[in-house]
Amino acid sequence: MAIEIESWVKVAAFVGAGLSMGLGAIGAAIGEGFAAAKANAAISRNPGISGDIFKLMLVGQAVAETAAIFSLVIGIILLFSNYSTASIISMAALLGAGLCMGFGAIGSGVGSGYPAGEACKGVARQPEMRGRLTTNMLIGSAVSQTPAIFSMVVAFMLMFLNFSGAPLHPTSAALLGAGLATGLASIGSGLGSGLAAGASCEGSARQPLNVGNITVIMLVGQAVSQTPSIFGLLISFVLMFKTYPSSELLGASMALLSAGLCTGFGGIGPGVGNGMTAQSAVTWVARNVRQESVLMRSMLVGQAVSQSTAIYAMVISLALIFLI
Amino acid sequence: MAIEGIDLIKAASYLGAGLAMGLGAIGPGLGEGMVGAKACEAIGKNPGEAGLLTRTMLVGQAVSESTGIYSLVIALLLLFVV
User: Fold this and answer.
1) How far is CA A86 from the centre of its chain?
2) What is the number of domains present in chain A?
3) Is the pLDDT at A74 greater than 90, yes or no?
4) Rounded to an integer, what is the distance from CA A271 to the centroid of its chain?
5) Which of A6, A24, A275, B51 ranks highest by number of CB atoms within 10 Å?
């Protein structure tokens, strides 16, 4: 049975929409569940301010939900758009967009749940810190949403840029790779940044006097744990905007798809690892603020070593794109 | 597009290189992050030994890094030698 290309483009868009929403729902649900569990623990500890804790839980969950809403938006656009150009390239781009947003929302959804939960616990411990804790929670969750926003940007570019002039064969693999690079790399960074933000909410509630130092080290640690997703974004842009000579060889297509997978998978571990290091450094700056500079130095040295594997992955991806 | 034997081998080696380095980077990244986390904790508890603890952290991370370097070597072999 012969199926014309217009139907295949629809197939790719519908599969992409399903993957975007299905994968994208994983993270936010886990993160919100964590926030609700911690909020329950907090209310049982300090039932007198249950209204405040309940409000804070809802605000925190709303931020964690954002990642899933991005997935919903991308999914709906994929379902209801009309595609004028029908080719293998548009199939790859639409499937890539769905995968990118789906994977990209997982880390941010889980990550934003940690600060929400820890802030609820913190308000139960120190009710007079509620304003500062809310601010801290919002800053921390906003940073851990960034990887989901990167994924959404890449997904929109894949859906709406016009690639019709490009040669069919390496370009379609490159676009699928571009989606996977940012999507997969965002998992680690979102989760890692959330760990650091959670520790800062807990630390600010334990040691309200050190809240300034805690926020500073949280932001530095989160910035480092964002880098793997920025590497993913970089590789996605290179894959989308490089012009390829037309090639019917399977090798040329596979090299570009593999470049996306390499930076994407390679970013997961370092993103989470950097976040763990930042989490511990933030916790101990809260408890022992006099050692802030020593802790900052150790955190950055530890993160630099953990980052190296993401850099190896990026180097291999660049070799696959430019040397092969 | 017609696929010939040598092209299939090249394609497989490129995919293998990407997967080797990509998946191989997950473990060391996580492991080294755990080492860094525990080192920060230990320095927070006992700042007097910061030098010794940093040295231990770096040696531990170097060992954990070795699997990442194996992945890198295999990826480079797949790309440029095989």
Assistant:
1) 30
2) 1
3) yes
4) 9
5) A275
Rounded to a whole number of angstroms, the distance from the CA of A189 to the nearest CA of chain B is: 12
Q: Which residues of A touch B53 (CB under 8 A)?
A: 298
Domain of A281, in residue numbers: 2-322
CATH of the domain at A114: 1.20.120.610
Q: Mind listing the pLDDT tens digit for each residue in A218-260?
A: 999 999 999 999 999 999 999 999 999 998 899 999 999 999 9
Query: Whole-model pTM above 0.90?
Result: yes
User: Vertex A33, ends A27 and A39: CA angle to 5°?
Assistant: 140
ipTM of the predicted structure? 0.94
Q: Is A144 buried (19+), middle (13-18) or exposed (0-12) by CB count in 10 A? A: buried
Q: What is the pLDDT of residues A251-290, one digit of tens each?
A: 999 999 999 999 999 999 999 999 999 999 999 999 999 9
3-state helix, strand, coil in chain A (%, to 5): 90, 0, 10
A and B: number of Cβ contacts within 8 A: 208
